[in-house]
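Why this split exists: single-chain examples teach little about how molecules sit against one another. For that reason, every record in the complexes split bundles all components of an assembly together and asks for one structure covering all of them. Below is a record exactly as it appears in the raw files.
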Amino acid sequence: MADAIPAAAEPQSIPGLLARNVQRYGGLPAYREKEFGIWQSWSWSQANQEIRAIALGLLSVGVERGDSVAIIGRNRPRHYWAMIATQMCGAIPVPLYQDAVADEMAYVLEHCGARFVVCGDQEQVDKVIEIGDRVRDIKHIAYTDKRGMRKYDHAKMNSLADLQAEGRAGHHRYEAELDARIGELNYDTTCVMLYTSGTTGKPKGVVLSNRNIIETAKNSSSFDKLNALDEVVAYLPMAWVGDFIFSVGQAMWTGFTVNCPESAATMMTDLREIGPTYFFAPPRVFEGQLTNVMIRMEDAGRVKKWLFHHFMSAARKVGPRILDGKPVGVLDRLHYAIGNLLVYGPLKNTLGFSRIRVGYTAGEAIGPEIFEFYRSLGINLKQLYGQTEASVFITQQPDGQVRNDTVGVPSPGVEVRIADNGEVYYRSPGTFVEYFKNPESTASTKDPEGWVATGDAGYFEPETGHLRIIDRAKDVGKMADGRLFAPKYVENKLKFYPSILEAVVFGNGRERCIAFINIDLNAVGNWAERNNIAYASYQELAGHPRVYEMVADHVAEVNRSIAADEILSGCQVHRFLILHKELDADDGEMTRTRKVRRNVIEQKYADLIKALYGDTQSIYTETEVTYEDGRKGKITATLRIADAEVAPEQRRAA
Amino acid sequence: MELRNITLRFGGVVAIKDISFDIRDGEIRAIIGPNGAGKSSMLNVISGFYIPTEGEVYFKKIKRGPMKPYEVARLGIARTFQNIALFDGMSVLDNIMTGRLTMMKSGLLSQAFWYGAAAREEFAHREKVERIIDFLEIQNIRKTPVGRLPYGLKKRVELARALAAEPKLLLLDEPMAGMNVEEKEDMSRFILDLNDEFSTTICLIEHDMGVVMDLSDRVVVMDYGRKIGDGTPDEVRNNQDVIDAYLGVAHD
């Protein structure tokens, strides 16, 4: 498709691509959103008009070249439009995590010097107003949802629709200026600034240019042969680079349709109604769906249960091979076809995966059973490895070479090398320009030749050339006796059990490893119901002796598999406890992308760690929790500490 | 709305004794009081469910006589109940649609065939209902049977049904009973928003003092069927009788 236009004429910016799409795909749907129970859609031409109206409105409130415009809200077409309109004005869109508390927001808004903010609703406006004394640069706020906003002081604020109306009314005055500004955009103009969630320290503003985004979108789209008829569902945080690449970069490049769910809670229903052909989800989404399927199968009748298990085992045997185009016997194929008719097809339909051509997962390791489950249904689920600084793509798995323990080969245009200490470095057209107002960090991350350190340790498999990631380079440590300590490796193994939502393993520099466990309320709650275990609260369920028994079994199983690993056999979990609350981003225990903040947890629960390394059987603890609105409370609990069964190590024998 | 010298007796029991107060257009009016103070009875008088033994009720300056429930609904008064009163087997959407029953005009026959006017009418009503669903953020449970919902959500569905009748005056009987902090916050926001957005007058009974003081414009305080305080939250908070009723009086 790209070769229809000579390379020189290729648009150099997102607004440029928009203009191209209006010409090429004018009447095709560009955006859809479910509202009032019905899918509303906008064609490329309609979207273009809406976006231009926002841009004109932004000019009318005085947006200058280089201004930062913050966008805080859930995935809605209007918020994507606001980002593109911002680019049209020569300003820089800065999407923020909408569930961040006011305090976290203040830092980012202050750091990027936001002068304009587009808020999704009253909740976001309130947060921006609340931090008004710290963030003084804000000149104007526009909000999408009018509800509850009537009584606010509108001197420096209005709704996005009103802003558009103002822009439309003033189009004679601003049109020439707007076109001039769009004309100034080129490959080196900043396309977007994204704040990394910051596993350590303060978030950093990653500046990505049009070149970064467009080149990456172009390469990755051709890698998976995406086209204008593809459909995606935009549901991941807008502040996350992945969503920007999928819902803006690739959507603009290939001209496919971006569908926005009605609300976060209706996501699964909306997914089913749309049936995307290209889908990205972090492992926890796939895990959650599989857990739901399994729960519902437990409640199903005997015939259905038998059918499900019979055909799923057949699928596990041949499904992935058929997907990879490898030779499969005629009988097996027939068996699979019947299964497809009776089980896989309806199941995929329920999950919303009937039409998927390309599915990706990344961000965390995905459990092998989970990965295989989807592959065996005939869903082309693949893994990729990336980060914000690379405009996502570093490596990805080509069709037909998919495995759960590697992350694939370098993406087109990306060079990857492994440093002597095992750390992975890359260089690509998508490599970020700089960290905003932070030259030291830029210099320490990106060397003069353009190589960027990922912070992950890994190696290339000699036979296949696929990259394997072991752990975060900085988390990899040593046990007291000098053996390797890779907490993430153990945690991932634990998390593969549906009943375990999160695990945090400690043991760096210690004799033995210990673990905190978070149960999955959904899965364990259902298990409790089936086993007639009564409980009144999360806390009570988490502390239930039978839950402890079950988790102890899982830990013992993980220990056995770790003991078999030559390098990591020191990481067996000796004692563990089940936490009385879910680890939560509001309490700073996780990042907004749900990655565990090890140091925070280590400090916050120091008393528990001490007890785990002691020999007490229970400990009383008080924990501070933060509610959604930022207020604080306390919960207290007496936690039981359990010893885990440790397997004999085969290290010395080997 | 104005209530003048209302007294309500059940046989020898005096539930409400000579109470007068008014509810102004567009305000949030709270009725508070200890258990058994007669709050719910008061609400039932306002809704027309009870006919006061003595006293007069004026709605929009017109004196109101005894009425049938559907007449009350047509006047523009809707309510929610202390103990949820929804149809458990029906979906959330259907439950809310029942709130628009008084506004449906097409006949039984045309509804049965669901053709022409009946279908058009239902589309129009459905759109209104969808706006309420959007407003109360219950899109995700649209098709869930009410019986499967947790308590906090049922309360919200009940509010949605009351709203579907597009009331001028909305009566809420303990809208936040049995909710946790976050559910209460959500509910408070909905009440404020709908008062703001649709200028619905709201009269509510609530036990959570924090909620009442934050939400309401004016508060009536009842104790043993009598009115012991009336005014803005601040006035009421500093009223000695109210403090005595709520905190108890020391025995000297």
